[in-house]
Amino acid sequence: MAIVKNKTLSGLLAAIIGFGVAPAFAQDAQPVTRAQVKAELMALEQAGYNPAYSHGPDYPADLQAAQRKVAKKQAEAVQYGPSTNGTSDSGAR
Fold first, then answer.
1. Number of CB atoms found within 10 A of residue 9's CB
2. pLDDT digits (tens, 9 = 90+) for 51-88
3. pLDDT on residue 84
4. Which end of the chain is more exposed for a tag (fewer CB within 10 A), N or C?
């Protein structure tokens, strides 16, 4: 059972490294470290992805959805200026 889990985990990690969650990894010539892979996996799990179900019928779609959530969160974290969420009123009283 442990061998199957290790193969599943290593397959998942290979997929993450191959597809690259962060766009910056696709442009770097440096190899990805184990810590980076673990951080990416944790980010995907926080976004709702469960690696235990990687062989289910929703496998590609749920991984891609989690990748989009992580990418959106990373993009929001690097934006400058005030938050654009909320409402504003204009006009005369």
1. 14
2. 888 888 888 899 999 999 999 998 888 777 666 666 66
3. 64
4. C
Say which amino acid occupies 14. A
**Residue labelled with tokens 């191959």:** 18
What is the pLDDT at residue 16?
59
* Largest CA-CA distance found in the chain, in angstroms, rounded: 71
Number of alpha carbons in the 13 Å side-chain half-sphere of residue 79: 10
Give dist(CA 18, CA 25) in Å, integer.
10
pTM above 0.85, yes or no: no
State the DSSP code for 50.
-
49 exposure class (CB count in 10 Å sphere: 0-12, 13-18, 19+): buried
Exposure of 8 by Cβ count < 10 A (0-12 exposed, 13-18 middle, 19+ buried)? middle
In the chain, which ranges are continuous DSSP H helix?
2-19, 23-27, 34-46, 59-77
